[in-house]
TrEMBL record:
Keyword set, alphabetical order: Iron, Metal-binding
Record-linked Pfam families: GBBH-like_N
Residue ranges annotated for the Gamma-butyrobetaine hydroxylase-like N-terminal domain, each copy included: 15-98
Entry superkingdom: Bacteria
Keyword Iron: yes
GO molecular function: metal ion binding
Entry keyword Thylakoid: no
Name of the protein in question: DUF971 domain-containing protein
């Protein structure tokens, strides 16, 4: 199961900084990472964001001011944040969080490049993908 490989670093501390909109993740070896809420939200591992396969991703916009209103532990392998825009279906396994932390700069740059290629910016309002396409996760058209 994701997040349970022998070599996956397990966080020893998770701190939500509401004012700066950052999730701080600490590890036993002293390493610490600060992941902005917007970064976590636009790279949510949920099917709603990632799709059900390559090329089905939904480009996320308008998330600069998103907050985290709650974080729930999922077993001993993941967290499930609820964001202020209502998104709560992403399970952030320890291995995925570590991947985000270690690759934050490259992942963020790739997101910005996808926005630019689509002629969008970070603050553009989200298009309602479900109504535009007639379905999709979150619309009741799929089981995720």
């Amino acid at each position: 199961m994701a997040g349970l490989q022998d070599d996956t670093p397990i966080p020893t501390a998770l701190t939500v900084h509401q004012q700066s909109r950052v999730l701080e993740i600490g590890y036993a070896d002293g390493r610490s990472y600060r992941l902005p809420f917007e970064f976590l939200r636009v790279l949510s591992p949920s099917a709603e964001v990632q799709g059900h396969g390559p090329g089905q991703e939904t480009l996320q916009t308008g998330k600069r001011e998103v907050g985290i209103v709650e974080i729930e532990a999922v077993g001993h392998y993941a967290i499930q944040p609820t964001f202020s825009d209502g998104h709560s279906s992403g399970l952030y396994a320890w291995d995925y969080l570590h991947h985000l932390a270690c690759n934050q700069d490259a992942l963020w740059q790739a997101h910005l490049e996808r926005l630019a290629a689509a002629g969008l910016d970070r603050d553009a309002p989200m298009k309602d993908a479900a109504s535009a396409s007639g379905g999709g996760c979150g619309s009741g058209a799929c089981s995720h």
